[in-house]
Write a structure and sequence with these properties.
Blueprint lengths: L5 E2 L3 E2 L1 H4 E5 L1 E3 L11 E2 L2 E2 L5 E4 L9 E4 L6 E2 L14 E5 L5 E6 L14 E6 L16 E4 L5 E5 L5 E5 L6 E5 L7 E8 L13 E3 L13 E8 L6 E9 L1
Parallel strand pairs: 3-10, 4-7, 13-15, 14-16, 15-17, 18-20
Antiparallel strand pairs: 1-2, 5-6, 7-8, 8-9, 10-11, 11-12, 17-19, 19-20
């Protein structure tokens, strides 16, 4: 696995995280990556940096250098140490608006082999002035248990699918932000046996009691909210989506 690139003098290589701006983003599939096209209403010139985000074959996505002939990937997006999940690309349009795209692919994609998927994270054209999030989602993690113990790492995902195949007697929350509001959305998936959960005493439940999860083959949705790093959680729930 490649992982995040570092050098011994300067630490993490900055261009892995944030790429130099592009002049335009091709958001519809281009049948041919060649020629000085008009992208996003902007006529390309030789050497312009173009972000390609929605090819029919996502392996082709990435940053290219526009040319009268075939386009080539830019030097900062043509090697396996150039991109990882979370890499961002700024697009500064000729209209004066800007956008930010984020790589949401596997952690260490191999250029020319693995799909490179992007999501539009910010677009100044959506609101002026101000900041707009587009197509916003939260990451989801699937959590099981071992010997009755389950660990939920907040950094991995604030959506949690908690799969029951035994009684859970201990739930530990890790890496909860120490300030501001932190929230978790749990889908508790009960199987054909009515497994039980012993909830942490730090959770204060609406109505004073935890959810009834005894219905087999059901899903119970739980919302947890904290403002003090998890010292105390406020819990609400919707029971038994059978």
């Amino acid at each position: 696995m490649v992982g995040t690139s570092e050098d011994r003098f300067n630490g993490v290589i900055a261009t892995l995280a944030i790429k130099a701006p592009c002049i335009a983003a091709a958001t519809t599939p281009l049948p041919d990556l060649e020629g000085l096209l008009v992208i996003d209403g902007f006529p390309l010139a030789e050497g312009d940096r173009v972000l390609v985000v929605n090819q029919t074959d996502p392996i082709e996505n990435g940053i290219y250098c526009a040319s009268t002939g075939l386009w080539e990937r830019t030097p900062d997006f043509d090697g396996n140490r150039d991109v990882t999940r979370g890499t961002t690309v700024n697009v500064n349009r000729s209209t004066g608006t800007s956008a930010v795209y984020e790589v949401i692919t596997i952690p260490d994609p191999e250029i020319g082999v693995d799909a490179i998927n992007f999501r539009l994270w910010y677009d100044s054209a959506f609101t002026a002035p101000g900041f707009a999030l587009y197509d916003f989602t939260i990451c989801n993690q699937v959590v099981g248990s071992t010997a009755g113990a389950a660990t939920i790492n907040y950094r991995i995902g604030q959506g949690v699918t908690l799969v029951l195949d035994e009684d859970i007697t201990s739930i530990v929350f890790q890496n909860v932000p120490p300030a501001n509001v932190a929230q978790l959305e749990l889908d508790i998936r009960q199987d054909s046996v009515a497994w039980a959960i012993t909830w942490p005493a730090s959770i204060k439940w609406a109505g004073g009691s935890p959810p009834d999860i005894s219905t087999v083959d059901s899903i119970t949705q739980v919302h947890l909210r904290t403002t003090d790093g998890g010292a105390e959680w406020l819990g609400t729930f919707a029971e038994n989506h059978a």
